Amino acid sequence: MNQRLKTMAENRAKLILAARKAFAEKGYAASSMDDLTADVGLTRGALYHNFGDKRGLLAAVVEQIDSEMAAHAKKARAKAGDGWQGLLAEGVAYIELALDPEVQRIVLLDGPAVLGDPSQWPSQSSCLESTKLIVERLIAEGTLKQIDAEAAARLLNGAALNAALWVAASAAPQDVLPKAVAAFSALATGLLKAPA
Fold first, then answer.
1. Which residues bind DNA (predicted)?
2. Which CATH superfamily, name and number, covers 62-189?
3. Which CATH architecture has domain 1-52?
């Protein structure tokens, strides 16, 4: 990698890190672009060059955190054992992340307010594809009902996302979390093939 590309990548990483900290502490609206750039010794021009504007910077931060959330949820799936328990654990782990202050503020509150419908974010598309593949495998092995895999994946992902949004936006997230997890689990269990 030539020096110019390396410097650009470093500047981009510095801006994302500074924005992540500022957005988590102050929120998107209260975070100043001048403060963000000054904190890392860069100009507003570097921010515009890398992200277009403050909204573009938020999108990059959300994408980074959302990717970390997906990785965390996948680890929960891997620890769960069988495919069905893994699918359930992945959804529950995603919902539980709504209690993390950084996730709550940046991804679940400011993200949708500024960037629009989270189900349309690129990171959600990759989660959907992953869930669809798992659902297809569970249908093929007879664990889940014969149902359209994409429809089931969209509903599972949508339920987990909306449960997380509900937890994050509630006045008492700790009280809402067990209700959201129980409802998500009950809905997902409806996909299980009835015993013979």
1. 32-51
2. Tetracycline Repressor, domain 2 (1.10.357.10)
3. Orthogonal Bundle (1.10)
Is 36:47 a contact under the CB 8 Å cutoff? yes
61 burial type by CB count under 10 A (0-12 exposed, 13-18 middle, 19+ buried): buried
96-110, 113-127, 162-176: which range is least confident on average? 113-127
The domain spans of the chain are 1-52, 62-189
Return contacts of 136-145, CB within 8 angstroms, 24+ apart. 137/83, 138/83, 138/84, 138/87, 141/83, 142/193, 143/83, 143/84, 143/192, 143/193, 144/84, 144/191, 144/192, 144/193, 145/191, 145/192, 145/193, 145/194
